[in-house]
Specification:
By secondary structure, this protein is an alpha/beta fold. It is 34% helix and 25% strand. The chain has 10 helices and 14 strands. The strands form 4 sheets. The protein has a 5-stranded parallel β-sheet, with helices on both faces. The chain has a 4-stranded antiparallel β-sheet with strand order 8-9-11-10. A hairpin with a 2-residue loop joins strand 6 (94-97) and strand 7.
């Protein structure tokens, strides 16, 4: 395909019930499709319109799910449309080809991390020593690449997050707060590096991207065109760039808008598209 569409998933294309932002009257709320079940419970959704748009997009461009999720977490998601040939997981640490991690890519990534930033163990020790049990629910390590905390957001001290960000910055790591999760991710571990690799492999003529968090900033800036929704860290920090468009929509309706923008930028039209606009 001459066009690659690399999109973040959570709070960009798919949404938990807490992130849907259904602010319209109940009778006007969009019909929802569950796309993830975890421990026998529905977890993530998109609108039925988004599901059709994503199916249309998959028929016309190389759609690449691009996520900070681990491979196991990603594989819980059941997106509509053709199964993606490629997926970027663990914030670029794993490049999946037909569902299987490319070992050469993963080896390149781990070598780059070893050379360029503080080791994961140092970050883990700091989180264990400074994060209070009063507001931390879980300590997690993802794919032996980065760490994150699951927190009680209303109890989380804002100053602690700021101090962690400064401490991590000095060690070559980035901190991102997304919903109830605080991520500490090595700076060289990027979605954009994996996107560039896929563009090289496929000979893509155009790369499109979308995302909502600080961990998506490099992805949007690396793509030929990018979009961010009206919610999330990128909206809060007012990220701007010539090729990045800030959309006003928030919540699950932002996912619809992003998919329409992808289709439009890829030079495609969907069957019945005018009726859905």
């Amino acid at each position: 395909m001459p066009v690659i569409v690399a999109s973040d998933l959570d709070r960009t294309l798919i949404y938990s019930s807490a992130a849907l932002a259904l602010t319209m009257p109940d009778a006007r709320a969009p019909r929802l499709l569950c796309v993830e079940v975890h421990e026998s419970r529905p977890l993530s959704y998109m609108t039925e319109t988004s599901a059709q748009l994503l199916t249309d997009l998959g028929d016309r461009a190389l759609f690449v799910p691009t996520t900070t999720r681990t491979r196991k977490q990603y594989q819980r998601i059941n997106l509509p449309g053709p199964p993606p040939t490629y997926a970027i997981c663990a914030n670029g640490g794993h490049l999946l080809v037909d569902g299987v991690s490319d070992p050469d890519w993963h080896a390149q990534v781990t070598a780059r991390l070893a050379e360029s930033c503080a080791p994961l163990a140092e970050i883990q020790d700091h989180l264990m020593a400074t994060a209070s049990p009063a507001w931390v629910r879980k300590h997690r390590v993802a794919e032996d690449l980065f760490a994150y905390l699951v927190v009680e957001r209303e109890l989380l001290p804002e100053e602690w997050v700021k101090e962690l960000a400064v401490w991590a910055e000095n060690r070559g790591w980035t901190v991102s707060l997304q919903g109830r999760k605080i991520y500490a991710v090595p700076k060289p571990l990027t979605k954009s590096a994996a996107l560039r690799e896929l563009a090289r492999r496929t000979g893509a003529e155009l790369t499109l991207a979308a995302g909502d968090s600080l961990l998506d900033a490099d992805l949007l800036l690396a793509a030929d065109r990018g979009w961010r929704p009206g919610h999330g860290e990128l909206a809060d920090t007012a990220l701007t760039a010539p090729a990045v468009t800030a959309l006003p929509e928030r919540g699950v309706l932002a996912g619809e808008r992003i998919l329409r923008e992808f289709l439009k930028a890829a030079g495609t039209t969907t069957a019945g598209g005018a009726a859905r606009n």
